[in-house]
Automatic annotation (TrEMBL):
EC number(s) per entry: 2.7.4.6
Record-level Gene Ontology MF annotations: ATP binding; metal ion binding; nucleoside diphosphate kinase activity
Residues binding ATP: 11, 59, 87, 93, 104, 114
GO biological process: CTP biosynthetic process; GTP biosynthetic process; UTP biosynthetic process
From-to range in the entire protein, with total length: 36 to 186 of 186
Gene: ndk
Species of provenance: Gloeobacter kilaueensis (strain ATCC BAA-2537 / CCAP 1431/1 / ULC 316 / JS1)
Protein's UniProt name: Nucleoside diphosphate kinase
Length: 151
């Protein structure tokens, strides 16, 4: 696996429930590095672009309403294999099907309140990072602990 970046967003339910710190901590503890982080009130335009692939689905309108209803914590994290590993840490879309130990499996019940988004592929990650962050908001920095995480 190579070093890559992925986009995660703690959705309104996760932020309202006070889970933001807990969730970010899971990625930090795993060894992934934050390179972008902000609290954002999502516009309808951003929500529709972000979820463009679901435009024709019956749940699309509700999804956009939900994601724009209350602040979201948006983050970009970096590390070896982070796109697939973040998805594994998040768990399946429906929290009731999500194994314990995943974020959705530990904290969620309903599919429309599944706490967190994570990019599903390197291509999605690239698109979503560019959609949510300006280049200046993404920081290149060296984690001094890197040698204790990577050999
Ligand atoms: P994921 O968030 O796991 O990538 P997705 O891309 O298929 O899942 O769908 C995006 C979001 O849309 C998902 O997190 C919750 C909502 N959603 C998906 N399928 C749904 C459904 N059948 N009913 C209601 N909401 C749904
Ligand atoms: Mg998805």
């Amino acid at each position: 696996a190579k070093v890559e970046r992925t986009f995660i967003a703690i959705k309104p339910d996760g932020v309202q429930r006070g889970l933001s710190g807990e969730i970010l901590q899971r990625f930090e503890r795993r060894g992934f590095k934050l390179v972008g982080l902000k609290l954002i009130k999502v516009s309808e335009e951003l929500a529709e672009k972000h979820y463009a692939e679901h435009r024709e689905r019956p749940f699309f309108k509700g999804l956009v309403e939900f994601i724009t209803s209350s602040p979201v914590v948006a983050a970009v994290i970096e590390g070896k294999g982070v796109v697939a590993t973040a998805r594994a840490m998040i768990g399946p879309t429906n929290p009731l099907n999500a194994p314990l130990g995943t974020i959705r499996g530990d904290y969620g019940i309903d599919i429309g309140r599944n706490i967190i988004h994570g990019s599903d592929s390197p291509e999605s990650a690239e698109r979503e990072i560019a959609l949510w962050f300006t280049p200046e908001e993404l920081l290149d920095w060296q984690a001094t602990i890197a040698g204790w995480i990577y050999e």
